[in-house]
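User: Reviewer 2 asked us to show a designed sequence for the structure in our supplementary figure. I'm pasting the structure tokens here. Could you produce the per-position amino acids so we can include them in the response letter?
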């Protein structure tokens, strides 16, 4: 499934260390769909995908 919308909010990157000692990170962002009834949807990027986070105001398509 795919959703296309404008990035309206970027939350801060959260980092940590797992019990096994591995570093991890995640970043959440909110997009607002276009159409007659716009909706705001929050997505989470985890691990290496954090570097692919879109910029605020950018139009993007998210596959999930």
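Assistant: Here is a per-position design you can include in the supplement:
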């Amino acid at each position: 499934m795919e959703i296309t919308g404008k990035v309206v909010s970027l939350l801060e990157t959260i980092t940590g260390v797992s019990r096994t000692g591995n570093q991890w990170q995640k970043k959440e962002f909110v997009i607002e769909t276009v159409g007659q009834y716009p909706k705001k949807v929050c997505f989470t990027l985890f691990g290496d995908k954090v570097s692919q986070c879109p910029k605020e105001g950018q139009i993007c398509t998210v596959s999930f």
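For the response letter, you might also mention the following. The CA atoms of residues 39 and 53 lie 20 Å apart. Strands lie at 2-10, 14-17, 23-33, 40-46, 59-63.
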